[in-house]
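User: Second chain of the day. Same drill as before.
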Amino acid sequence: MLYEIKPFEAFKVGDRATFTKTIGEADILLFAAISGDNYSVHVDEEYAKTTRFGGRIAHGMLTASMLSATNGMLLQQPGGISVAQTLRFLKPVYPGDTITARSEVVEILVEKRRLRCRTWCTNQRGEIVIEGEAIEQKDVH
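Assistant: Same format as last time:
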């Protein structure tokens, strides 16, 4: 991923970044190992079959972490950091689902050099699986 130079003054409402990835078996197992979240609905197929999901699902925070990629792609350089992120988990993500994460500038907060962004993830059927809002601080060194 290449981060280009974009000063704060160049941002406008409607600026957007997108990142797409298919969630695989390795992603789920590595996320479980890194996070320590080994809850059965994520790692035990037999247990997960007995749940309302009918099988294993990806961690919500694994899917949400893709928004970190889009927020960074949106900020570009020089510097920037996320200062807030809200999330609503709307639908499960299954192994093999292709997720597209998006961040879109909806307001520019000039005084604090911040961007308020709508954030959301959709699956390959176009269904929103996560939605939320991010506040991004630009030009942090």
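The chain has a mean pLDDT of 95.

User: Great, on to the next one.
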